[in-house]
Amino acid sequence: MRAVLMTAVGGPEVLQVAELPEPQITGEREVKVRLRAAGINPVDYKLRSSGTIGGSLPVVLGVDGAGVVEATGPAVTRFKNGDEVYFVDGGYGPTPGTYQEVKIIDERLLARKPERLSFVEAAAAPLVTITAWEALRGRARVEPGQRDTRAGRGPLRRGRAAGPGRRRLPAVAGGRRAPRARGGQGARQGGPEDRRLARHDGYRDA
Predict the structure, then answer these.
(1) End-to-end CA distance of the chain
(2) Tens of pLDDT, residues 37-59
(3) Most distant CA atoms of the chain, gap in Å
(4) Residue 101 has what DSSP assignment?
């Protein structure tokens, strides 16, 4: 199979396309996934430029992925061949990441890909969604349906940063009307791409 290897610590030039043996299932709950798309996150270039967490070079980076189940271990119950899935796993060093064509992953780390999302869209979602979820539920302890509509205090606000900021509205709103932000415009505070993503996820302007 083809893979993108991080061959040394450095710039983009240390990433090299290579041929590797295709991994095979060895555990009872493992699933073999044929990758259709891999997400790219800031952590990838940080590891590339500063070094991985454990393990030895070369390594396969990439933590987000989406693809199709190709084979399952004897104890797998949640997935079957042909299922479309997405996930976050590996990519920090010892465990190979998603910059490769095939990945072996425990079924407990997989989720079914939403039908309305393409493989590319699904592969961009896991890490930023988990980050937003942990910030909202683990740190801020926001509950489903909870809203604060005071000026400038809604979950969707001006100046939010990168993926986690973009994804935190769906995590809070739960498919309901978007809370109002400064100026009372809700999702309209973002640019055209932000509005397109919000509408894609089922949110309306407040």
Answers:
(1) 48
(2) 999 999 999 999 999 998 899 99
(3) 57
(4) S
